[in-house]
Amino acid sequence: MVFLQNFWNYLALSAPFFLLGLVIAGLIKAFVSVETIKKSLGTKSTFSFIKAALIGIPLPLCSCSVIPTAVAIKKAGANNAATSAFLIATPESGVDSISFTYAIMDLPMTILRPIAAFVSAMVAGILQMTFNSEEIEDEQEKEKQPCCCSGDHHQDDKTGLVSKVIKFAVNDIMDDIAFWMFIGIVLGALVETFVPLSFFEGLNGLGGKLMVLLVGIPLYICASASTPLAASLIMKGMSPGTAIILLLVGPATNLSNILVLKRYIGSRGILINILSIAVVAFIFGFATDWLYTYFQLPVDFKIGHGHEHLTWFNHLSGVILLGLLLKGIYTTEIKSRWQREGKTCH
């Protein structure tokens, strides 16, 4: 019963802000198509990586669904710097994960997260321009890669704006993140229920931060899914700085994406991206802890008082969010598997 209560606290407390972020994300996808991004970034401009980072911050694309878009802008003429900046900034942040962070954490973490994503993208862009400016000609013309998410379902249609926004939010964005977001909420509730207080205090030093960094680089956890997990770890003794390393590294790197991108930006480009993400995350880890200590910011996240602040609107929003999560899991994990098995049998 305690686990179910904690699970519902995470879900209902975050639901109003997350649903608002989902609507905003739907609006962004309705007006910012892949073609728009290609036209904006598909140039050899020296400083196009700055634009790529700024465009990537609010876009609601997870670590694997960003790949087809990145490949598209690369083939449209974007240089390695712009491609890398877009690849880093986009999955590390997004209006959905930003709203989710504010809902269950606090304002400083909500602000620091996209700033760190932007700095990571900028550092990678500068290093790519300096050490990896040579472009690679790819002979395999495949813009779509196998993906852990459902991918981009968008087809250009003539439906109205409201219908298009709802379609993007429910079918595209939510389906992409539903499974991993559900896992993240479950993990957060498990940590909240079964892990003793101050259990993760030992990870707050240099060694602990390095361990979180090394574990997070090869693993995949999307920005929205990492949020409840990071919040629960902080409530159990992990410092905000150590947790922000997980929030930055987990969504931006995973082995499958590294292998796909190698042929577009080269081994040197992959190494530059990983080092940029790791170094910036590490620096922001210590900087975040310093800010919380110097300004005496209370690590007293909203999720720690979720049951005290839940209103009827939270509960209603929680029911809607749970329905969207279950719908997304059914569409991407159950229905799609049945369809693949059916095709195999025939």
Walk me through the structure.
The protein has helices spanning 2-31, 34-41, 48-56, 66-75, 80-92, 95-104, 107-131, 161-194, 206-216, 223-235, 240-252, 255-294, 306-309, 312-345. Helix 5 (80-92) crosses helix 11 and helix 7 crosses helix 11 (240-252). It has one domain. The radius of gyration is 20 Å and the shape is globular. It is mostly helical and 346 residues long. The model is unreliable at 139-146 and 150-155 (pLDDT under 50).
Q: In terms of per-residue confidence, which ranges show pLDDT below 50 for 5 or more consecutive residues?
A: 139-146, 150-155
Bin the helical content. Answer: over 70%
Sheet with the most strands? none
Strand content: under 5%
Estimate the global geometry from the Cα principal axes: globular
The chain-level mean pLDDT equals 85
Global Rg: 20 Å
One letter per element, helices H and strands E, the order comes to HHHHHHHHHHHHHH
Q: What structural class results from the helix and strand content? A: mainly alpha
Number of discrete helical segments: 14
The structural domain count equals 1
Distance between the termini: 45 Å
Number of strands: 0
